[in-house]
């Protein structure tokens, strides 16, 4: 509704979080919002942790020619240095950034920047992931997006890891995860325990 009332050009500084499991369309929603801002002649840029190498180095790949420039960063503090003349700052895969991101986003919003953050809300064990929970707390607006459970078709809640690996930060191929609803996730965990005994 806010979109219709104010358009894209005169939004004050604010923090928006788009979170959810894998396959939930977080990045698509981030890009949608960034594109609308770009159409409104806003200066936009997406930052993402350098750890995320699935996309091309420089640009967030969207499926048409309207590519939005993206910059890989090593720490949240770099955003303050690099975003000095940007109207709308997008941050993708924010769960991999440090906790300093919370303060960085507040500083940006306080000086009039619109900040849009996309990230995983939970890791593959269902635990809150990185700075995302704190960002949800300080955000002006939180959008939780959902994938579809591959077992039953309900709304998914977590990205269940299919391979046996305990590292929390595991990037890579999406074949290694499946979106599951709470019910199906509980069943899958029980089965795994039985198989390991
Ligand atoms: Zn299910």
TrEMBL record:
Q: Which UniProt keywords apply?
A: ATP-binding, Cytoplasm, DNA synthesis, Kinase, Metal-binding, Nucleotide-binding, Transferase, Zinc
Q: What Pfam families has UniProt attached to this entry?
A: TK
Kindly list the places in or outside the cell where this protein is found, as annotated in its UniProt entry: Cytoplasm
Q: Looking at its record, which EC class is this enzyme?
A: transferase
Q: Which residues form the signal peptide?
A: none
Q: Can you tell me which residues bind ATP?
A: 20-27, 92-95
Swiss-Prot/TrEMBL catalytic activity: thymidine + ATP = dTMP + ADP + H(+)
- What subunit structure does UniProt give? Homotetramer.
**Name the UniProt record assigns to this protein:** Thymidine kinase
Organism of origin is Prevotella herbatica
As recorded in Swiss-Prot or TrEMBL, the protein's gene is named: tdk
